[in-house]
Design a protein that fits this description.
By secondary structure, this protein is an all-alpha fold. It contains ten helices and no strands. The protein is globular and about 50 Å long. The longest helix is centred in the first third of the chain and has 17 residues, at about 15-30.
Length: about 170
Amino acid sequence: MERAIAMTDEAAQPVEAGWNFFTRAYTHTLRREQREAIEDYTRALEHLPRAPQFLANRAKAYQAAGRYDEGLADARRAIEVNPDYMEGHRWLLIPLWQSKDTDGLREAMEALRKRAEGWRDDRARAEALAMLSSASWVLGEGDEARAWAERAIEADGDTMLRRCCGCA
């Protein structure tokens, strides 16, 4: 991992430089060095401003650093750039349910539900449906949560998903 931190070359082509900063930022994230991770994700975004992976990862780093509003803004931007990018939805839903922002959570859930209906990738759709199940539990909607969990299982059928949702 030391090599990942040392390999950043700002004179590299924009795509390469962006990914180099991303790699370095991710290494900082693994080390729980959120301030440094945020700085490098920001530098990566200077090279590739519409990379949803960079935005979603910076959202996660902001949230880990307690900078929730900035994290939510990045998650929303990641979804704006690529509405089908699941990590953008994840890093929008999680802080909304942690903060008990029920209106924001319901709005984000509805947007994810609409997107996930058209996804052809069974795993991504199942993951989205499982996220909707978890969010429904947070809102105190047990029957709705179970229905989402069952749909997630239908979409993927993976035994681990069955165990995680408690529907086996």
